[in-house]
Specification:
Length: 262
């Protein structure tokens, strides 16, 4: 269960009641955690800020070699119970399906992508920026993706580069699909809050193999001049990378992107 389309009001709504009900009948184990995570259908990443916590916790249990059906105790049990409690908040999430105001004439459309990384996860999120002839500017959440950090420890700048690579691929896919739907080319800009990663992307120096390979992947689907710096507090990708989901249903940073887009 997860994202459903309510065609009467034209909204995507998260339906998690079945997941919540199922969670009450499952024992607190690693197997149950994986089962609950697999039940949440969220293809556009509306609540990736939450689901990444499930994945990160599962990775932690695997690293500590807990058996599949071993009851969770102590701090693990507290974390498990906390995640189940948080599930209730996300049944309140609803997202308009239509990006555009049908009663206003569009002047320009742009895509803006953000990425971020922490020791536990890295993430990317894409927004649509619409400017109308009237001068009004609107921004809409399109999609996000979050992944747990590799088991092998990496430096934060390298994780930021992984996040940028994820963003470039996600942004390229969204750009291609929207261009087909709108029958016109769409500009896309990428924003990251890591100066080392931005330096690697924007400069053509002989970097070490790890950096060179990922920069090469990024530049297959983007150009150097499309990448810019975004201050950390204004970066919406910071929320899933750190698993921060306080007040998600009304969080303007998450649903509308950085304030400077407007």
């Amino acid at each position: 269960m997860g994202a459903n389309w309510d065609h009467e009001v034209d909204l995507f709504q998260l339906e998690l009641s079945h997941v919540i009900k199922c969670s009450k009948n499952l024992p607190p184990t690693k197997r149950s955690l994986l089962r609950l995570a697999a039940m949440i259908f969220d293809p556009l990443g509306f609540i990736s800020v939450f689901t990444i916590n499930l994945k990160a916790f599962f990775q932690e249990l695997c690293l500590n070699k807990l058996a599949w059906d071993e009851p969770l105790e102590g701090s693990y049990r507290k974390s498990y119970d906390s995640l189940l409690t948080q599930l209730h908040k996300f049944s309140l999430v609803s997202v308009p399906r239509c990006f555009f105001d049908k009663h206003m004439e569009i002047k320009s459309v742009e895509l803006h992508g953000f990425s971020d990384a922490s020791e536990r996860a890295y993430a990317a999120v894409i927004y649509l920026r619409i400017q109308y002839v009237s001068g009004e500017v609107d921004t809409k959440f399109i999609t996000s993706k979050a992944k747990v950090a590799p088991i092998k420890k990496q430096s934060i700048p390298r994780l930021e580069l992984l996040a940028a690579c994820l963003l470039a691929k996600l942004g390229s896919n969204v750009q291609e699909i929207l261009a087909q739907e709108l029958n016109s080319a769409i500009q896309i800009n990428y924003w990251i809050d890591s100066m080392p990663a931005l330096c690697w992307i924007r400069n053509s120096k002989p970097w070490v193999q790890y950096v060179r390979h990922r920069v090469s992947e990024i530049l297959k689907v983007s150009t150097r001049h499309q990448w810019f710096y975004c201050p950390g507090p204004q970066n919406p990708a910071d929320l899933p990378s750190r698993g921060i989901h306080a007040n998600l249903p009304t969080n303007s940073l998450w649903w509308e992107g950085a304030a400077f887009l407007k």
